[in-house]
LRR receptor-like serine/threonine-protein kinase At5g10290 family (Cajanus cajan), 124 residues
Amino acid sequence: WKKYDAGELEEVITVCGIEEIYKEMAERMVKVALLCVQYRPESRPIMSDVVKMLEGSVEISKPLNSFQKIMDGTFSDHLVQESRTNASKSINSSSSATVTEPVVVHDSMRRYDEIELCFTSGDE
């Protein structure tokens, strides 16, 4: 978020070594990812729209940083506690299962992993 909000997305993509032909796709992926991690679930796009955005058939709206208050330290502790309590209630009231399936990794998926690593290693 910090790099995107500062208008440094193109710089990050360049530093990551993304080839020129993939830069537009990388920028599209980052913007869609930021839309998908909105604080409120109802603000996130539905998966069919995510696919269309990634394919380039639908325009991507400007992601808004719904975490800005948290990053600034101005987010109310009460709201954080309430969120944790509600999450705990949800977890306790439902059951879950884990399904493990074999994963096939393609070369294009490796490139996405490289992009992810480049974005996560810079600010930590």
Remarks:
- DSSP finds seven helices and no strands in the chain.
- Confidence is low (pLDDT under 50) at residues 77-106.
